[in-house]
Amino acid sequence: MGGALAGVAALDLYLRDPGTPTAGTLADVAAVAELVGEVLADDLAGEEDIVLGLPRSFRALPIVERHRVWLAVGHISGQRALTTSDALSLLRGAAFTLGLDLETTANRVLSGELVIPDLGGPPSS
Question: How does the average pLDDT of the chain come out, rounded?
Fold first, then answer.
């Protein structure tokens, strides 16, 4: 997304048929995402979320922390070329191993304090 949400919010793109989207499709999606990001950022910066109709309580700390978990999942997924399910499993495994909650682990990943190790593929014989 664009505007103040660049690097913070994402727009998912689903294709009807498997394959790589065309360059034209990606350019169209980028243009729409830029505009959506700007409008959403303006609305979220206001006193109330007019377009989304979300109450202010949706910006409460537990919700913000869960959002950071998903940002960390996206970060790990992008770094390791993993599915989000696999990235979430790695994040959960790191949290368990370190004796931390998921939110603290996510914050450490996003701050660069914790790097999730590359576990590679299955062990070789």
Answer: 80
